[in-house]
Amino acid sequence: MRFKSLIYILGAIALASCESLVTEIPQSKLPSIASKLVVNSYISPQTAKTVVVVTESIPLYGETTSSDKVISNAIVRLSDGVKEITMPYDTAAKVYSVTQAQFPIKATQTYKLTVSDAKRSVNATCTVPAKLVTIQSYVIDTANVREVEGRDTALTLKMTWVDIQSEKNFYRARGFTEVEYSVLQVNANKEMTEKRVAGRFNFDWDDNTGRSNYQNDLNLDGAVFTSPLGRATLPTSLLYYTPDGKPVYAKQKVKVLSLTMEVLNCDQSYYDYHRSLDLNRNTDNPFAEPSLVFTNINGGLGCFAAYNSRMIVYKPK
């Protein structure tokens, strides 16, 4: 009994000692780090619109909310050194945008982006790369992939391209496919009917082989580059329930309309920003030291960058 009593006493002392090490710091003593404007925009001669997304960061020690932090009342200006345009806000898309007709983006041109609201102002510059990449070859195939509900079909894509010689280059491979497929819907008579719809499915790139869809030509000037294997899982079949609760397993009768593949010749800011995002997303080590996400926005966060894109559209016969 004396031994048990001694254990209880020592336990109580240990708990009291632990509690004495915990000190609550009042809010007034914490460093005040205000929220910053977060700006993301990637400009290119090949895009129909130039789009700028403006949000704000959550202050250090601030409370998170479920609502988004999109800034809709900012003044967003884009300049090429001669001409300047104030970009209007698109309430539906929640972005600031202008068309190429309103403000063209040209290769070799340097652009400046300025964003301000009532209390903050940020800016950034970027230069559109001069040259387009030569896509040397591509291979399109199909593969079976295992999904939650069974085996599905995926389109696969691999590309090769030739490095632009005698300059520093940064590349990104990407692609998507447009497909038509069937879905079931309930009509006015509460009957299940088939409807044909179209959708876009992006390729996901398998970087387990050590090759990324973001690559650079350090010590590889003039070499032939190969993308990792890209997969776009196609809709094949879905389980539906009729109005009276009966299960219906319907084939979606996929028809591939087109497959678009492209290799981007990026500026270094585009490459550094997206690579830093990948490093933060893909770390599986809980003890790894977190890496900072790249930013080139003066006074804020995010990325303003440019690319010149070579695109090939394949349409099955």
User: What average pLDDT do the residues reach?
Assistant: 85
Compressed to H and E, one letter per element, the order equals: HEEEEEEEEEEEEEEEEEEEHE
Count of helix runs: 2
Helix content: 10-25%
Distance between the termini: 89 Å
Low-confidence stretches: 17-22, 27-32
State which percent range the strand residues make up. Answer: over 45%
Secondary structure class reads mainly beta
Strand tally: 20
Largest sheet: 9 strands, mixed
What Rg, in angstroms, do the CA atoms define?
Answer: 27 Å
Structure notes:
The chain is mainly beta and 317 residues long. The chain has two domains: 140 residues, no CATH class; 133 residues, no CATH class. Helices cover 11% and strands 47% of the residues. The protein contains two helices and 20 strands. Strands 1, 2, 5, 6, 11, 12, 14, 19 and 20 form a nine-stranded mixed β-sheet that branches. Strands 9, 10, 13, 15 and 16 form a five-stranded antiparallel β-sheet that branches. A hairpin with a 4-residue loop joins strand 7 and strand 8. The radius of gyration is 27 Å and the shape is globular.
Q: Which labels suit this protein?
A:
317 residues, 9-stranded mixed beta sheet, single chain, 5-stranded antiparallel beta sheet, mainly beta, 2 domains
Short description:
The protein has helices spanning 2-21, 268-282; strands spanning 37-43, 49-56, 75-79, 84-86, 89-90, 95-99, 110-116, 121-127, 134-147, 150-162, 170-186, 192-202, 204-206, 214-216, 224-226, 229-233, 237-241, 247-251, 255-266, 301-314.
